[in-house]
Fold this sequence. Notes:
Blueprint: E1 10-15, H1 19-29, E2 34-40, H2 43-47, E3 57-60, H3 70-78, E4 83-88, H4 93-101, E5 106-109, H5 114-125, H6 133-141, H7 153-163, H8 168-175, H9 179-195, H10 203-212
Helix pairs in contact: 7-9, 7-10, 8-9
Amino acid sequence: MASLLTDKEIKVAIVDDHEAIRVGFKGACQEYGLKLVASAATVQELLDSDKIADCEVVVLDLSLADGSIVTDNVQALLKTGAEVVIFSIGDKKNMVRAALRAGAAALVRKSQSMEELARTIRLIATGLVVNNTETSAVIDADTQFKDEANLSPREREVLSLYASGFALKQVATELDISISTAKEHIDRVRAKYSGVGRTASTKTDLLIRAIEDGIIEESSM
């Protein structure tokens, strides 16, 4: 444990919707040479705090009760200048991969020790790349990111037209389906992307997802 204690006190924050986790983390910070500057149940609550400017590393729960999307949470926190560690039970592999792709520095499972979490925080705060077993396993398993949303062939077809600039009415006409059916397909596409932590609330978001997944060629736009 002594090796984790240095002259530099790392300023950290935690976002977790379970009060017991937040309280436990607070109690462990002093022992491991960490200075807790903020604790919140949601990312927005943390962002609204004037303490976020002092934070070097944010420990973030993967799935929060407010229904926020993990990629949005990671990106919002990174904009403050802080690094992000995902602290989760890690069972939602697609969401973990999405969080790492959004810029989170590492994954530490809640089943691991506080010592491991503190070690990871310190490495990240000093600018080192963390290659712990959990993070590496997630990255190694990420071989087919485009399949994460599991879109059906029809959903991919509708998305291709809609994201390319077609209005729903035009999509319906092109595919010989009703407008309501076309809208149902797009709604399902949005839900599937959001379910794996990939923002799809706007038409621009859908265009980006379609390009990422090879449904639309970027050069054709």
